[in-house]
């Protein structure tokens, strides 16, 4: 495997900035979508049509405040959009693929540019001024799902990577190859050191994830375990709002005719001695888990947004991992592979017949 050396760039940020500006200046794309540096240490996404606003771009912000796939789905699907370059983290690129499969965005004229991701700082720690930059060497500086992320690089159409001292562009799709050629990028550079780093960190993250999942599985065993983990839920639904792939236009939990009538609660309190209120917390979380489990890309947004410190992203992604394995499916990987629930194979899932 070879990459295209970017010899004049000494860092990933420098290379990302150079590519964004050149793509707009040369008319290779009409727009660039990228996070920027906003007031009060915030990082709003901008859609730039000229190179000048890109001076505020921050393509690798320390925190994820809005998932890139949500930003992207809000600006695709219009016939007037032209060609677009979207600069995002690998988990945002994977979410974009799932969102497109769910027909809530259109990636046909989008080139997704990613990078080796350093991870993101937990939002609450960042807001407290406690940790301001992720340090891949210090797991405490990373969000829990970043600590176990194995998809921290090699996503999207083109990925910028470091191999030793060098910065290289790695095209991963035909669109990425065409984009690199349109920018005049060529040459071949060695990726050995990047491949070694990727494999080493991937194995370490897999081990961390396995241990964390085992422990979470113990904590959430049975309905009572699950109820205990979600007992602090304040019902704000932020986990649903920030999730890039939570796809229903009207959430089942908000449908009026789904709510239990008051009489049902009164009857239950009489028969059981007491009824727990509000009663739909677990129903919401189990329902969301069922909806999300094949498309969750383990981006950690839901968990970062949770005011009650519930490991909601770790839970959904843990269940998702097992569900997806049943279908031999990996969320966000292959844009051409149909969603398992949109296809029907007569020979699948016989194990569950009896
Ligand atoms: S989950 Fe964390 S480490 Fe993985 S790609 Fe997303 S931000 Fe980066
Ligand atoms: S459920 Fe949570 S971790 Fe999974 S894609 Fe949605 S926000 Fe990301
Ligand atoms: S964000 Fe947290 S507190 Fe709010 S509904 Fe989701 S799990 Fe409950």
Topology overview:
Elements: E1 2-5, H1 12-25, E2 31-35, E3 45-48, H2 68-73, E4 84-87, H3 90-101, E5 110-115, H4 123-127, H5 144-147, E6 158-163, E7 166-171, H6 174-182, E8 189-190, H7 192-219, H8 222-229, H9 238-242, H10 262-272, H11 281-292, H12 301-305, H13 312-326
Parallel strand pairs: 2-4, 4-5, 5-6
Antiparallel strand pairs: 1-7, 1-8, 2-3, 6-7
One iron/sulfur cluster is lined by residues 95, 243-245, 292, 296-302, 313, 316-317.
What does this structure look like?
- The radius of gyration is 22 Å and the shape is elongated.
- The protein is α/β, with parallel strands linked by helices.
- The chain folds into two domains: 2-210, no CATH class; 232-352, no CATH class.
- The chain contains 13 helices and eight strands.
- 38% of the residues lie in helices and 10% in strands.
- Helix 3 (90-101) links the parallel strand 4 and strand 5.
- The chain has helices at 12-25, 68-73, 90-101, 123-127, 144-147, 174-182, 192-219, 222-229, 238-242, 262-272, 281-292, 301-305, 312-326, and strands spanning 2-5, 31-35, 45-48, 84-87, 110-115, 158-163, 166-171, 189-190.
- One iron/sulfur cluster binds at residues 233-239, 305-308, 310, 312.
- One iron/sulfur cluster binds at residues 95, 243-245, 292, 296-302, 313, 316-317.
